Amino acid sequence: MTKNRDIILLFAFIVALLPVMLLRDFTPSNELRYLSIADEALREGHFFAFTNHGEAYADKPPLYLWLVMFGKQLFGRHIMLFLSMFSLIPALVILRTMDRWTREYLGERDRMTAMLLLMTSGLFLGLAVFVRMDMLMCMFITLALRSFWRMYTGTGQGTRDRILFPLYTWLALFTKGPVGLLVPILSVVVFLIIRRESGAIGHYCGWRTWGILAAGCAVWFTLVWFEGGPAYLNNLLFHQTFDRAVDAFHHKEPFWYYLVSVWYSLAPWSLLVLGVIVAALVRRDRFSSLELFFLTVIGTTLCMLSAFSSKLAVYLAPTFPFIVYLAALLMHRRPVSCWMRLSVVIPAVVWIGAAPILFLFRHYPDLAMVNSGWCMAAAGILSVTGIVAVVSMRRSRDIRRSVGTMAAGTLIAVFVGGMALPELNVRLGYGVLCREAAQLVHSKGLSTCYVWEMRRAESMDVYLGQPVVEVSAEELCSGMCRNGIVMLPERKLQDNDRMQRFLADKCCYSVGEYLIVELPDQNPQRRHDRPSPYV
Q1: Cα separation, 371 vs 362, whole angstroms
Q2: Residue 420: closest CA among 494, 368, 348
Q3: CB count in 10 Å sphere of residue 230
């Protein structure tokens, strides 16, 4: 193993994700909405009180939206590679921080295995490229907790870490909201109470910590009040915090939600890492100080988030580095058991079936989007990797070698599968559809872009440069919509006879799963080169 093996692993991680960052379209659900909000803020000159198509948007703090706005000003348009860097770089920082944090406790091979486990865990891998603020917040939380540990153990620079701990905590708050504040503070407080050092809480969370947090929040809230007024500030401080925590208006789930979601969020390694931690708790193992601290971060965050009404699997992301590295610490000091080997073999067996299953069901409608050569090649890589991992486990019984094999196969499969994105983008996002629509509007001299039955269609203005008008079937069929085009999902027409009759004499253009329909001032005669499919 080379001396710079961690740098090599991080470089491999970057290369594996590069096609996704270069070739992927923005997803309509959240990514496109953030871009639309940033564009609106630039047009209106807002930097603290944001709006989403005229409606107040106090759901997120401004830091991440500032980064999106900066990219738009710098390049003149939104570039996926640039925006993905604000997820990828934080992921790299987290991996590097956790590796350095455990250097005194784990050998080189064990740290390599832990890094591979974390970087190829399903949700962590996805968050490393999604245009979201979650990974950025997780980075600040990890750095804040690392700063506390350096203070607690006396291994850092006292004054510097006493400033960095509250500074990183405030940046986590300023990135996504209260969770960024609560995770570091509560984890530290609970850890000190468990260690029977509650008298030291004031030392680590004293006047300096609260002073920095209060000063940062005071400046932020004052600027919000000046720009958005008392109503916006009330929305930010109460509606988006207490209301969502007590009786959520979005993503309301039962208290046990994370006990289920954590298993698929950490796949394919959930059986291994969670099994090791649960086994240690059942055996009542004696935890070292670092292991206890990691366990405290996990347990405190899990309990806190479970008590909140609003829940999403991604909210548990701050615990993922600590879950994986706690499992690595526990595995390091105990012999590898049969069930631990089995917890790696099971996902390897599942991967063996990736290529055969995709091939057998390649014509199934729900799998049509992955019916491409690149996706089949990626599935083949997973199947081969699964076979090699099982054979390796059977021969050497070395769990680290099998984990390394599967992790390498995952990264290669992600790289190869990413090459299929240009042909998949028409199904993943609205970029291809909107570019076709914009070209048609320009060439035909039309003015209005209508949409019917499309999810999160309001954010299409990022591509079109103008707002879209959402209309009903009644409005379309009555002839109210003219001098424009209407975009709609073709599958919605299957059981709608009225819309099919409406489209019978219209010029329709197929773009993936969608149709673009011309709506001129007068109904044109049917075009024979591009006839309507609904005659």
Answers
A1: 6
A2: 368
A3: 9
Alpha helices per DSSP H over 333-472? 338-352, 354-360, 373-396, 399-418, 421-428, 431-444, 461-464
Residues 188-218: pLDDT tens digits? 999 999 999 999 999 999 899 999 999 999 9
State pLDDT tens for residues 210-247.
999 999 999 999 999 999 999 999 888 887 666 555 55
The verdict on pTM exceeding 0.70 is yes
Report residue 517: phi and psi, to 5°: -120, 130
Q: Is 186 left (phi over 0), alpha (psi -120 to 50) or beta?
A: alpha
Distance, in Å, from the CA atom of 421 to the CA atom of 266, rounded to the nearest integer, reads 24
Distance CA 197, CA 215 (A): 28
In the block, tokens 């909107």 appear at: 434
List, in order, residues 6 or more apart from 415 with CB less than 8 Å away: 15, 16, 17, 18, 19
User: Whose CA is closest to 86, among 5, 177, 171?
Assistant: 171
Q: What gap in Å lies between CA 364 and CA 74, rounded to an integer?
A: 43
